Amino acid sequence: MEYRTLGNSGLEVPVVCLGAMTFGEADDKSFMHKVGCDEQTSFAIMSRALERGVNFIDTADVYGQDGLSERVVGAWMKENHTRDRVVLATKFRFRMGEGPNSTGASRYRIVRTVEDSLRRLQTDRIDLYQIHMQDVATPEEETLRALDDLVRAGKVLYLGASNYAAYRLVDSQWIAKSEHLHRFVSLQMQYSLLVRDLEREHIPLCKQFGLGVLPWSPLAGGFLSGKYQKDQPPPAGVRLEKWKERLADMDNDRAWRTLDAVRAVATARETTLTAVSIAWLLAKPTVSSVIFGARSLEQLDDNLKGAELKLSAEEVQRLDDASAWELGYPYKFLANIQKRW
Fold first, then answer.
1. Residue 226, domain extent
2. Hey, which residues are catalytic here?
């Protein structure tokens, strides 16, 4: 397994990260209803991943209901005595409970969410604590000061952000620097051959500030795995069968052209479409580790092939060209003059 530093921090993580969103069988009150796996399967997946060198697990308090995913990960670590072998990441921000202060990133809420996550995870520290989305109702300085206190108290080791607008991320980095607070070392965002919006501003920003990018949904919800055929209904049991609106958004010429290019590279290299899609991300600047999900050992093994595959510059360019997207103004204007933006 190859390891990379998480941004400019000294923390080394494997190039693929096991996402725990599907761990635990959520009831019909959760958005994860009928798309997860039971606890026994979850334990087997985490154990196999660790054996293969994937010691980086990412979860969130909101995955499942009542912190289900965190509870499953915590139970596995306790049963297998693996806490000190794992880089543990979780997230906070979205609603957990009733009342006006049960959502957001205020100091009032953060001091409670971290204790709740520590209890569910059955640990004394969180290695990477991430805000799940920016909170425009809370001053960024308030959020950063609360998180800085957690680092100083030893409850959290590193800080990360997720689903941030570029302007807010720049503001956050500047506040942390000027106020001598611990800053974000990573940015977890949706990034794949079909979702390349980050390349407008976030990727250049992460280069400048030394943030490691943690792409989520590298297969675009499974679309890039090769299970789908143009003008055909999705196979039974796949995630996009339930999330039909997301599948409809990808039913366009660019998506099918990209899928054809991924299939061609996979055929030539005698590997899977999943491996090619993950390897493409790992060839991109600032990417520290690609987060993938798995509901079975077979899916886990398929995703791990992406960590072993090295694409040539020509193959990366072929996939870039097939998935080309509209830059928009002023990025296209800048690129036409300087060939970059």
1. 3-338
2. 63
pLDDT at 242: 56
Q: What is the pTM of this model?
A: 0.93
Residue 179: give its domain's CATH number: 3.20.20.100
- Point out the residues of the chain with pLDDT beneath 50: none
Q: What is the three-state SS of the chain?
A: CCEEECCCCCCEEECEEEECCCECCCCCCCCCCCCCECHHHHHHHHHHHHHCCCCEEECCCCCCCCCHHHHHHHHHHHHHCCHHHCEEEEEECCCCCCCCCCCCCCHHHHHHHHHHHHHHHCCCCEEEEEECCCCCCCCHHHHHHHHHHHHHHCCEEEEEEECCCHHHHHHHHHHHHHCCCCCEEEEEEECCCCCCHHHCCHHHHHHHHCCEEEEECCCCCCHHHCCCCCCCCCCCCCHHHHCHHHHHHCCCHHHHHHHHHHHHHHHHHCCCHHHHHHHHHHCCCCECCEEEECCCHHHHHHHHHHHHCCCCHHHHHHHHHHCCCCCCCCHHHHHHHHCCC
Which residues touch 86 (CB under 8 Å, ≥6 apart)?
50, 55, 56, 57, 77, 127
Structure confidence at residue 112 (pLDDT): 97
Question: How many domains would you assign to the chain?
Answer: 1
For residue 308, the tally of other CB atoms under 10 A from its CB is: 14
Q: Is the dihedral of CA 268, 269, 271, 273 positive or negative?
A: negative
